[in-house]
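Narrative of activities, Objective 1.

The group set out to show that a structural description can be obtained from nothing but a protein's sequence at a throughput compatible with the screening campaign. Below is one input-output pair from the validation batch, recorded exactly as produced.
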Amino acid sequence: MNRQPLRGRWPFGLLGLLALTLTGCAPGTGGTAAASRPAAPAAAAVVEVQMVDHRFEFATPVPAGRVVFRLTNAGRSPHNLVLIPLPEDLPPIQEQIRGTKRRLVEPYAGIYDRPPGDTGTFAVNLLPGQRYAMICTVVDADGEPHSKKGMATEFRTPEAAPT
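Output recorded for this entry:
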């Protein structure tokens, strides 16, 4: 196979293309490439969550929109986090976990088991005014899941601001 050098195929050569890219100019734009670019999206909100034996610690309110959850296992045993959107007519999550009448809910996002000291991150789009639950599904040697030991909580995102 006969390969040609890149500079023989590109009108500006690789160095010229790199220079144009770094200066924000592109051929045929008249130097206005930056002015015609769409604005970058707003930075996502970050929610720091500490997974402690047997609770979640985080600041409220958790905002609606793009949210990054940064999790740290600050406990002595493995923990995970499952984020679940809750229907309005669903009883409180603790009642669902401990009760005998349960309804099926679908997980939205989360992280797998993390050993003590480990971290994890995930990003989601949260709806305004929506109820969400965070639960830990790790099961201890006694057969009880952490969620039954108190590692389950709810939050609601604020309603959208009036426009």
